[in-house]
Amino acid sequence: MASYIRQAPPRWLTIVAALLLLFGAAGLFAFYGDVTMNESRLAAMPAWDRTFFATRPGWFIWVYGTAVWTGFFGAIALLLRRRIARPLYIVSLVAVVVQFGWVFAATDLIAVKGAATVVPFPIVILGVTILGLGIATRGIRRGWLR
């Protein structure tokens, strides 16, 4: 006999998981734009952005990719009602923290562009990742995910 009682998942779970998937797809699009950056697009950027792209450490793109892909697959796992969503969102959360932690701690981005310009979107990304993790955790506890 199971040690928990499986509950039927609420309808909002599918809606939120689909929105998380769309957010993840937008992240994949941004990541694709980053890894396919070419000289003409780079030349059109402000000087600080060009310097950032040229001087960021090699591991940065791997952390960025890890954050985006695990978040995307976490949303798919939520849609499929799979428990693997939780560890995927944990990995995504760690990668998001490392990625933006490095950007804000190791660069002068805030001094150059201003906190009001650069801080809100990373907070949204962090919040969406925490939301996905919270829903996955709740889904496991409620028996919505198998």
From TrEMBL:
The entry's keywords: Membrane, Transmembrane, Transmembrane helix
Transmembrane segments: 12-32, 59-80, 87-105, 117-136
Protein name per the record: Sugar transporter
Native source organism of the sequence: Sphingomonas yantingensis
